[in-house]
Amino acid sequence: MVSIIVTHKKDIFYLRDCLESIAEQQFQDYETILVLDHTEDDLEEIIQEFQKEAHLKIYKLEEKTGVSAARNLGMDKASGEYIYFLDNDDYLYGDAIKTLLDVMDEDTDMAYGKVKHTWFQRQAFNDAQSDSENEEEEEISKRKEFLLSFDFNDPLNYRYERYRKLDKITVLGALYKKSLFIDNNIRFNENQTYFSDALVVTSIFKYAKKFKCTEDALYVKRHHNDKQNNPAISQHTKEETMPDYFVAYKNSYKMAGDDKKLKNHLNVILAKFIVKEYINKLRWSEDERWKGEFYNGIVEMAKTIDKKALKRKEFTRAEKKMIYAFIENDFDKMQKKSIRVLFHRKIKKMFRNKRVMYKTITLYVFSRMKLKENWIVFESFMGRNCSGQPKYIYKYLMENCGNKYKCIWVVDRKGVKIPGTGYKKCKRFGLRYYYYMNRSKYWVNNMRQSLSIPRRPETIMLATWHGTPLKRLVFDMEDVHSANPRYKDIVYRQTREWDYLLSDNPFSTEKFQSCFLFEREKILEYGYPANDPMYAPDRQERAEKIKRKMGIPENKKVILYAPTWRDDQFYDKGQYGFELDLDIKRLEKEFGNEYVLLLRLHYLVVDQLDLSQYGDFTVDGSSYDDITDLYLISDLLITDYSSVFFDYANLKRPVLYFTYDLEKYRDVLRGFYLDMEKDLPGPLLLTNDEVVDAIKNIDKITEEYRDRYDEFYNRFCCVDDGHAAQRVVEKVFH
Ligand code: C2G
Description:
Blueprint (H helix, E strand, L loop, with lengths): L1 E7 L3 H12 L6 E7 L7 H7 L5 E5 L6 H11 L4 E6 L3 E3 L2 H8 L6 E9 L3 H14 L1 H12 L6 H5 L14 E4 H6 L12 H12 L3 E12 L15 H19 L3 H25 L8 H10 L14 H11 L3 H22 L1 H11 L7 E8 L8 H13 L5 E6 L12 E4 L3 H9 E6 L14 E4 L23 H10 L3 E4 L2 H10 L7 E3 L13 H11 L7 E5 L8 E3 L2 E2 L7 H8 L3 E5 L18 E3 L6 H7 L2 E4 L4 H5 L6 E4 L3 H8 L14 E2 L2 H9 L1 H7 L1 H11 L7 H9 L2
Parallel strand pairs: 1-2, 1-4, 2-3, 6-8, 9-10, 9-12, 10-11, 12-13, 13-14, 14-15, 16-19, 16-21, 19-20, 21-22, 22-23
Antiparallel strand pairs: 4-7, 5-8, 6-7, 17-18
Helix pairs in contact: 9-10, 10-11, 10-12, 11-14, 13-14, 14-15, 15-17, 16-28, 20-22
The protein binds [cytidine-5'-phosphate] glycerylphosphoric acid ester (C2G).
The site of [cytidine-5'-phosphate] glycerylphosphoric acid ester has 19 residues, from α23.
């Protein structure tokens, strides 16, 4: 009854989710037409696996290539009464097909579901979706109300929201009667690589007599978050796609015929393209075609614009004038108007957004001042404290270089303590921050720097990073579950600004190259300055002093619990929650006489722990600025997937892993570089019982893990020797 048309060229990794989602449809009267477009993937295994389950029928493109040709072939081969297009990197949620069929009746030509965008693989999406379904109920009913206010017999009304940009128009997410395509000879233009959906959708809008829609049939459209290695079609450059843009627009316009409403929509799409996208290309692109060939192409299309179609609130007066200049084919006027539009926008943005204002001031004022050769800006953990590698590099400079350097610390609030004297502080993203950053020759940062600071060519950035990676990072991650979806792209741009990257061991050196797509020559495998104190001759006395300062009795041993953050427990961008699974009451009962428990949550976790109920047994270490101090005073570390244990191992003290959510963390959220079961210097403990047991038998465990610990130490702590800061300073600062 239904033919699901899936086209495949590459990305076998994504295809599994796609086919699985089809196989799990309860509705069984369908076929999956899988059209292979000269793929180099070895699909034998996956085809065998899904042959029956997903009712596969395989066809190959012979002479032709491209999504359009593949979809056309799929339509030719489809035997169903209905067709549904599904890209090989997307998937269905729940019983999408049946849900669509249920709303169809005799004379309905198509039924729209909802297209939902995601950066997640299917399992994570499903989890998140079912979690949010209950919570969102209220919102859903509101949306439904809104939808119901539309005239359902007019497809454009419902689709209007999505019918705004040519590259947003899609045939996906809807079930069509095949006869709609055949009777009206609707096919994808095989000469087009991009935007071939536009003409098809315009034709559908023109010919479909009756349509239905349901919010409950979800098509999940997956973004590719790895623009560098694996670009999706929509991530190709504008310059590449422009020729197809013209073809798609013109053909769609022609197809609209005398349908005024459709024509108006197309006009608005073009006008928006001019004032939102073309204008930036004209201003910033070095490609001359934006002033020649592409300009002419747009003029050609703009001739059809009906000025009345623009009479909406969507365009400002200046924008309209710019569009009119296109209609009149007056390049000079258009350019002048475009400058005005951009100027208005910039001013508006500056008053709305302080950072834009400061950036502009930096560009026009600060960057014209002289560069300060001896200024160094330090930032650790986004200004949260003075710790990590930046702190120990700074300390070394203070102790060994006299007044040669002026050090500036970036802080995110008042009260961040900085050791020593003679330093300056500036608030992160304040005007002085822009000033110091722009004028200083050196930047030292243990995380990724903000891209909003205009950087001079002479600036030298030392990226120290903040740990040997256990969890897969950036380009080694297949999926990104963190809150910012443009993650990979942003990291790529940030890491291009790094002149040096510090590494603690050969393992990190190797991983940093792949996870940041980073050059070996710029990596300094010098060890971590923050680990220097662990080799200091006076480390014992230091530890006693810190213990006293924190009010921990001398006769008590210290268990440091330092877990990491969880990608799926977030409130907002960069703000994570934490659910404490460790049974503190129980630990207190068992070990209260001998130990104190020092709790240290990750810096991304904003939850505060209320420890008042545990009395003296617990000590709150979360707000303590420097974790190196906490390492020094603890006798035992409990962690999970945090890279703290790589640093801690320098002390050769026991480490336990409380990995109650190992499977989820490894398989869904992140994935690891190491084999957690084989490579770690301590046992994985899944329950509180096991934790209690392990602490009781800590001497036995130490004995058991001695060889593994030595191996681990030799592999990961082999560079640290107490002199990392010195090596770094001698290399980087001249
Ligand atoms: N950290 C801390 N307290 C914790 C956990 C971590 O102070 N409870 C600090 C430590 O300095 C640690 C660093 O943050 O070395 C990194 O911690 P991870 O938990 O490993 O987390 P993440 O920030 O994701 O960094 O290559 C390293 C990775 O990027 C991991």
